[in-house]
Amino acid sequence: MNREYRGRGFGRGRFQSWKRGKGGGNFSGKWRERGHRPDLSKTTGKHTSEQTPQSLLSTKTPQSMQSTLDQLIPYKGWKLYFSEVYSDSSPLIEKIQAFEKFFTRHIYLYDKDEIERKGSILVDFKELIKDDEVTNLIPDTANELRDAPEKTLACMGLAIHQVLTKDLERHAAELQAQEGLSSDGETMVNVPHIHARVYNYEPLTQLKNVRANYYGKYIALRGTVVRVSNIKPLCTKMAFLCAACGEVQSFPLPDGKYSLPTKCPVPACRGRSFTALRSSPLTVTMDWQSIKIQELMSDDQREAGRIPRTIE
Predict the structure, then answer these.
(1) Angle at CA of residue 15, ends 11 and 19, nearest 5°
(2) Within a domain: residue 115?
(3) Residue 232 pairs with which residues in a beta bridge?
(4) 20 lies in a domain?
(5) From residue 32, how far is each of 41, 42, 116, 274, 300 by CA, in Å?
(6) Does 87 lie in the same domain as 141?
(7) Before 233, cis peptide (omega within 30)?
(8) Does the pLDDT at position 14 exceed 90?
(9) Whole-number average pLDDT of the chain
(10) CA-to-CA distance for 168 and 159, rounded, in angstroms?
(11) pLDDT, average across residues 236-245
């Protein structure tokens, strides 16, 4: 991993800002370093008094206006990582806060351009469990990751998503101030879904001990890769629009099998008719590949007449 801090900019970061009053403008830009600033004068403009923000927004369809952000939720991109409705009393909040503080303290170890470009972050498990604040808030981090990997990895992903979003928002505010733009508008930042990938996880599990009771658990294996399949696309979450209230939810698709939500997550609605939004930012796809590994055995571990075990 490149441990050099390249700068506070991001290779594919995007932000938009607009005013809620008359004469609003919008801008978006890409940057890698603080020294490179988009020419905001080319994209800002004046509007007549008859052109209200509502008329500006009405030119877009609900799908194009759909963002990964929800202004009522303090955690940016919550819907990207969790299908349940946000609640302040959720047991996941404490984990997200612990991981967010960890990434904030160790952000100098990561290349933020690379995180956003690849849509993933490599997390050293040994560094994680050595962090005192993480161990205080999550006493049994190893068991949490082993027994509930999807939720734990999603908490890590949302935590780094939050860190990157805050950094982009701060950078956008600085650019606005440097260009002399008003800061009384609302800044929207879209960061892609970030997959947390943990390495150096312990303990190692021997291939011969992998049984059905490990299904759905997070384990570490060591072996030789003997075969890989072609890379295929896999849709892990699909965005669905409720026909009754217009709420958009990110519905998980286990193993990529298409299925419809049973009800709307909004308690006051509970609608049962949905439309799939395949181009929504809340629809998550990933590259999928099957790997076959063969166990490593020393000479004293070899059993006569038996070939090494393999697993996909």
Answers:
(1) 165
(2) yes
(3) 288
(4) no
(5) 20, 20, 11, 39, 54
(6) yes
(7) no
(8) no
(9) 76
(10) 14
(11) 90
Pinpoint the alpha helices (H) of the chain.
Answer: 53-57, 62-65, 78-81, 92-105, 112-118, 125-130, 132-137, 141-147, 149-178
User: Using CA atoms, how far apart are residues 100 and 194, in angstroms rounded to an integer?
Assistant: 13
Give the total number of structural domains in the chain: 2
Domain range for 253 is 232-288
Based on the fold, state whether residues 87 and 190 are members of the same structural domain: yes
Q: What is the pLDDT of residues 132-183, one digit of tens each?
A: 889 888 988 899 999 999 999 999 999 999 999 888 888 888 888 887 776 6
Domain end call among 150, 178, 201: 201
Residue at 249: amino acid letter: Q
Q: 139: closest CA among 98, 107, 197, 106? A: 98
Specify whether 78 is located in the same domain as 167.
yes
Sign of CA dihedral 132, 136, 137, 139: positive
Helices (H) and strands (E) in the chain, counts: 9, 11
Own/partner contacts of 39-43, CB < 8 Å, gap of 24 or more, are 40/175, 40/179, 40/181, 41/179
- Separation of alpha carbons 130 and 75, rounded Å: 26
Q: Read off the pLDDT of residues 93-132 as tens digits, 9 standing for 90 and up.
A: 999 999 999 999 998 888 888 998 888 999 999 999 999 8
Specify whether 252 is located in the same domain as 135.
no
251 in a structural domain: yes
- What CATH number should be reported for the domain holding residue 146? 3.30.1640.10
- Taking alpha carbons only, the member of 235, 251, 239 closest to residue 286 is 235
161 and 273 fall within a common domain? no
Q: Is residue 118 part of a domain?
A: yes
Instruction: Give the pairing of strands 186-190 and 232-242.
Output: unpaired
My answer on whether 161 and 112 are in the same domain is yes
pTM of the full structure: 0.69
